[in-house]
Amino acid sequence: MLTRRQLVSGAGAVCLFGSATRAPRGRALGPEVAPVAGKIVAVELIAAERPTALACFGGAALPLWTFAEGAWPPLIRLELGDRLEATLKNQLPRADETTSIHWHGIRLPNDQDGVPYLVQRPVWPGESFRYAFAPPDAGTFFFHTHCNTVEQLGRGLEGILIIDGDVTEPYDADIVLLLRDWRIEPGTAEFASFATLRGAGRAGTYGPLRSVNGADNPRISLPASSDCRLRIINSDPTRIMRIGVEGADAVIAAIDGVAIPLMTLTTWAMGPGMRMDLVLRSPPPGGVASLVDSSAESHIELARLVGLGAPRQARAFDPAPLRAGRIPAPDLANATRIGFRLQSSAAGAAIAATETALGVAVAAICLSSRSFWSINGQSWPDRDHPRLPPPLAVLQRGRSYVFELWNDTDFSHPIHIHGHSLTFLSSDQRNLPAHHADTILLTPGERAEVAFIANNPGDWMFHCHVIEHQENGMMGYLRII
Ligand code: C2O
Ligand code: CU
User: Fold this and answer.
1) Which CATH number fits domain 332-480: 2.60.120.200, 3.20.20.70, 3.40.30.10, 2.60.40.420?
2) Pocket flag, ligand 1, residue 469 (CB < 6 Å)
3) Distance from the CA of 146 to the center of ligand 1, in angstroms?
4) Cα of 380 to ligand 2 centre, how many Å?
5) Cα–Cα dist 118/62, whole Å
6) Of all atoms in ligand 1, which is nearest to the CA of residue 461?
7) Which ligand lies nearest the alpha carbon of 235?
8) pTM score, two decimals?
9) Which 8-state DSSP code applies to residue 398?
């Protein structure tokens, strides 16, 4: 079995931040399937404060804000073709704490997209709102609040959304791993402030407590020597992870819910909001492999993957690919090009330059401006949404567009588009394979090109998914008419 180090050198990877090689015997993707009308899945999501003792909290119960009683995170599972009817009730404990649900990555009608003021009234405490849509794509998604996101998501207001229907041959296991930190100071049982001035102007404020499904480095049991699907979701408000597996062979099967031809995993950079589906040959009985984040200087083991029971697969690892996704191919020859420059404002640059966390000069800047970040020189005028700026661009419905994304800053930005999936074309810094993504990571100084057909009318958010960047200016929307 190859170690990660061997794979990296074998691939001749020069990439700083994510690389992968084509699997030697890549099998073609399965044929795509279109949804046919299925059942109605009705759920009630009650946003409320629920003291919860997640395993990673070491015995303490913290005042999480969650969408449901019981296990965290909640999971909604549909078959492709099913219609979700989700009633959101706001029972959050503050009189002015509005909320909403954004169904991240789903290509749904604009009025179901959950962005307050832009497409719906925010849901006030005591009120409810009913979302109803039939997701057009199978895959791994998640949902989260789109109001006061840094705090509400920081407190846990999110869930997993799986749409089944993309499998060509059943895997031996299908497991969701939701990765995120918690802003809890070690040794206390209280949340620290969810945003800091210093973090907001830099890479964001990290949570000291890391978790996988709410546990610190959990043992995840897998049927031994079998082909297991791992659905990895980075829902952290801030942290970019460089995900790899040590001690087991793994291939990437999908990025942001959309299948790709199987590719050997070396590491893959996952910014907030990004998903990756792996197929992994689990360890033999009693064997242990590791899910690691190698973006820090030392590797961090996020979870231990343990083989249990009798070995299932005798043949060599040659996993089945997923079915092809249904994202329409943009017409590159006739596409309109639009440039988007991600920049820091003068206030943001000053924050980034200072090494003192809360010096007087910094505090003065903070009072004068909360716009540390911008897209094409426009900063969202307010931390939340009530004052709508003009759209960043107006796009013609049905037309193909190539977006040139320029990261003019010294920090990374995972840029997320609502309601669409982008076709990745190229980067001047990273040699990434062809794939689709609703969240595109741009490393410092990177320039990337993506394309898509503007086929879904409405006003669609286009923002950095480092929530402190989003809430401090790096947010806008595209109008498709
Ligand atoms: Cu998951 Cu507007 O974001
Ligand atoms: Cu950002």
Assistant:
1) 2.60.40.420
2) no
3) 7
4) 13
5) 32
6) 2
7) 1
8) 0.92
9) T
d(CA 84, CA 81): 10
145 CA → ligand 1 middle, Å: 8
Considering 361-365, 383-387, 440-444, the range whose residues carry the highest mean pLDDT is 440-444
Summarize pLDDT for 298-307 with one digit per residue, the tens.
789 999 999 9
370 CB within 6 A, ligand 1:
no
Sorted by sequence, the CB contacts under 8 Å of residue 392 that are 6+ apart come out as 340, 375, 376, 378, 462, 476, 477, 478
Chain CA centroid to CA 373, Å: 20
408 Cα–ligand 1 center, Å: 22
- Identify which ligand lies nearest to the alpha carbon of 408: 2
Residue 190 is which amino acid? E
Q: Does domain 40-164 have CATH number 2.60.40.420?
A: yes
Contact 287, 307 (CB under 8 A): yes
DSSP-assigned beta bridge partners for residue 269 = 242
pLDDT of 197: 87
112 vs 103: CA distance, rounded Å: 8
* CA-nearest residue, atom 1 of ligand 1: 104
Q: Which helix (H) or strand (E) holds 153?
A: helix 149-154
Token pair for residue 186?
A: 């070690």
Q: Which ligand 1 atom is the nearest neighbour of the CA of 144?
A: 1
Indicate if ligand 1 lies below 6 Å from the C-beta of 275.
no
Displacement of CA 319 from its chain's centroid (Å): 25
What's the confidence (pLDDT) of residue 385?
Answer: 61
8-33: pLDDT as tens digits? 332 333 333 444 555 445 689 999 99
CATH code for residues 14-21+169-308: 2.60.40.420
Distance between CA atoms of residues 376 and 339, nearest Å: 8
Query: What was the pLDDT predicted at 174?
Result: 98
Helix (H, G, I), strand (E, B) or coil at 355: coil
Residue owning the nearest CA to atom 3 of ligand 1: 104
40-164 against 332-480: fold identical: yes
In the DSSP assignment, the letter for residue 445 is T
Collapsed DSSP state (helix, strand, coil) of residue 478: strand
- Are 145 and 159 within 8 A, CB to CB? no
Cα–Cα distance measured from residue 479 to residue 124, given in angstroms and rounded to the nearest whole number:
26
Mean pLDDT, to the nearest integer, of 142-161?
A: 97
Give the residue extent of every domain in the chain. Answer: 14-21+169-308, 40-164, 332-480
Q: How high is the pLDDT of residue 185? A: 81
Q: Give the ligand 1 atom nearest the CA of 418.
A: 2
